[in-house]
Amino acid sequence: MKTVDCVERKGKYVYFTVVTSEGKEIDFRCPQEQGWNAEITLQLVQYKNRQAILAVKSTRQKQQHLVLQQQQQQQHGPRLRSASNSA
């Protein structure tokens, strides 16, 4: 799931539009009086929070990897090309 594009109340229904990672939209509705629309909303928010946390962790890991690579290059100096490549 990419996002919940729309959550709105019209009349006696709550409408949700979920956008998948492939860009497809899934529309559904439920009566406002029933409690499961709140449960759906909470679960969608929790899902989006988990996705955001994973994205931040992934970005941090990539940054740490780049920093380690830079530190290794600074410690070992630039790599020299072989004599056949420099001619």
From TrEMBL:
<feature type="compositionally biased region" description="Low complexity">
    <location>
        <begin position="66"/>
        <end position="76"/>
    </location>
</feature>
<dbReference type="GO" id="GO:0043065">
    <property type="term" value="P:positive regulation of apoptotic process"/>
</dbReference>
<dbReference type="GO" id="GO:0005737">
    <property type="term" value="C:cytoplasm"/>
</dbReference>
<keyword id="KW-0963">Cytoplasm</keyword>
<dbReference type="GO" id="GO:1901981">
    <property type="term" value="F:phosphatidylinositol phosphate binding"/>
</dbReference>
<dbReference type="InterPro" id="IPR042832">
    <property type="entry name" value="PHLA1/2/3"/>
</dbReference>
<dbReference type="GO" id="GO:0005634">
    <property type="term" value="C:nucleus"/>
</dbReference>
<protein>
    <recommendedName>
        <fullName>Pleckstrin homology-like domain family A member 1</fullName>
    </recommendedName>
</protein>
<feature type="region of interest" description="Disordered">
    <location>
        <begin position="66"/>
        <end position="87"/>
    </location>
</feature>
